[in-house]
Prior knowledge:
Elements: H1 2-17, H2 27-47, H3 57-67, H4 72-82, H5 92-112, E1 119-124, E2 129-134, E3 151-152
Helix pairs in contact: 2-3, 3-4, 4-5
Protein name: DUF3347 domain-containing protein
Amino acid sequence: MKVFRISLLVFAIFALSCKEEVIPFGPNHQKLVETLFTKNQVILEEFLKENPKPNWKEFSEAVQSLVANDHPKLKSWGKQITSNIPSIQTDLESSYEKISKIQEILIQMKAEVPNQSKYNRFYCPMVDKSWLMTGKEVKNPYAPEMRDCGELMP
């Protein structure tokens, strides 16, 4: 019984010491994220137009920079975003759902990657979606009939 307790204790200490290594985000990582946020801003501004025709090329290139990066978290986020980039860019209805998923990943990135205070999180309770944009004015990219619906989140 004593051997079992000692073994269990050793195993517990070993398991606790095997935490995932936290790799800090350096200036280059921060710049990649900032570039992605800038390209996201362009996409969301296009959705604010009367007849949006989003061009995902530059956004996709910025995402691929994350995927090709050496930082494991950026690489993971990049892969998640890649799987949500709309394949049929003219289908706006399905694009809204994919954009929403992308925005959730970007919001997580903003929370974890330093020096991203230029972008603010907004939330619209009517469509139950969030997004990141510059400024403090609500510009809802999800609801053409309710562009001012939403609020700036802390």
